[in-house]
Amino acid sequence: MSVLLQKPIFEGITQKELAEQLEARKKCQDKLPSWFNSKNIYYPNKLNIEQTSSEQTAHYKAQIVGGKTLIDLTGGYGVDSYFFASKMARVLHCEINSELSEIARYNFEVLGQKNVECFAEDGIEFLKNSTQHFDWVFVDPSRRNDKKGKVFLWEDCLPNLPENLTMIFEKTDKVLVKASPIFDIAQGIKELQCTKEVHVVAVNNEVKELLFVLEKGFEGEIQIKTVNLLPHQEDHFNFILAKESSLEIDYGAPQEYVYEPNAAILKSGGFRSVAAFYKVTKLHPHSHLYTSLEKIDFPGRIFKIEQVLPYTKKSIKSLGLTKANITTRNFPMTVADIRKKFKIKDGGEHYLFFTKNTNDSLLIVSCKKV
Question: Helix H segments across the chain?
């Protein structure tokens, strides 16, 4: 029976409130296990849970910062502040929503995190009025409610970073900015001052957030750092943004193995850099698939090539497959269109890459995952 249909169980707590707590807690099981596995935690509405960082990404962010003091201008449910507090002597958590601020403060006490101070205020206004100089400022701008479509500009978010960055740099020398995975990296850098690093953070091969590290007065080469956080390992790949477009790499036909970079690398745009570093051959300038004669340790999926065929109905028929995992890279048809046209279901041990070679001819790379 639904909780909503049962008689009240706790005095002063409606069944609706109880149902909301149970639903929010369930969403935390994988995303926030420390909260889920602790007694007496209070949960906000499920939207706040969906918008907050996961423990994995919050822990990663905490490895970037250092020093004694950090102010979180957009504290929310407090997951990032909680992990920052493991690295900093003092963390200030600003959250304009007073109810959410109180929930975060209460949970910090429950979790035993004693070096976080909560302020139910607008973070930008708090920082303007503060006389303190912080080692780090963290901000997670949120999309304005009145803006439709995908957001690619900082000015479409609250707080408006370009508008407030001069003031922020009066209070700190280092800023860490979190952005949505749909954010355009090049545009983000263009709008901000002093970008030193951009971190592309994926969890289980799904990009979850972009992190811009700003340093007052920085004018050097921007480093792009990618990470794919997996259950038992982390795959890292870093490159210098300014060198990416000028790198000389090899292009050629599929050899014995084919490689598909992980989602963080694909988002980063480091297509030449990954080829140059791992000394692999790229199938086509726009395909983002790589090949080699000998198998190498590569940050992404690795496949053993079985056949390379021209894209024809006869070729597909010769494979004799009714089920396969299909990926398209730089190909004029979608995966759904291919499945429909050739009646190939999803799954199985076979992997088919539909792509182009260096002559722009369409081809099929049939392989098995290593």
Answer: 15-31, 33-36, 46-51, 55-62, 79-84, 98-110, 123-129, 161-171, 185-191, 241-244, 263-268, 271-278, 313-319, 335-342
Kindly state the DSSP code that residue 21 receives in the 8-state scheme.
H
What is the DSSP code (8-state) at residue 49?
A: H
Residue 133 burial (10 A CB sphere; 0-12, 13-18, 19+)? exposed
In 3D, which of 25, 70, 300 has the Cα closest to residue 168?
70
Tokens of 61: 């962010």
> Whole-angstrom Cα distance, residue 317 to residue 342?
8
Burial 264-290 (b: 16+ CB within 10 A, else e): bbbbbbbbbbbbbebebbbbbeebbbb
Summarised one tens digit per residue, pLDDT across range 1-53 is 344 444 544 445 566 676 777 777 887 888 888 888 888 888 887 777 888 89
Positions in the chain whose pLDDT score sits under 70? 1-16, 18, 144-152
Query: Distance between CA 48 and CA 134 in Å, rounded?
Result: 27
- Give me the pLDDT at residue 9, please: 45
pLDDT in the model for residue 25? 82
pLDDT recorded at residue 157: 86
- The per-residue pLDDT for 3 is 40
The amino acid occupying position 353 is F
Q: What is the model's pLDDT at position 4?
A: 44
CA angle 149, 150, 156 (to 5 degrees): 95
CA distance linking residue 362 with residue 149, whole number of Å: 34
- Joined together, the tokens standing for residue 111 give 């979790």
Residue with tokens 């999803």: 346
DSSP 270: -
**Neighbouring residues of 246: CB distance < 8 A, sequence distance ≥ 6:** none
Going by their DSSP bridges, the two strands 300-310 and 325-328 should be labelled as: unpaired
Q: What is the largest CA-CA distance in the chain?
A: 74
CA 167 to chain centre: 28
DSSP code string of 335-369? HHHHHHHHT-BS-SSEEEEEEE-TT--EEEEEEEE
Give the separation between CA 6 and CA 136, rounded to whole angstroms. 48
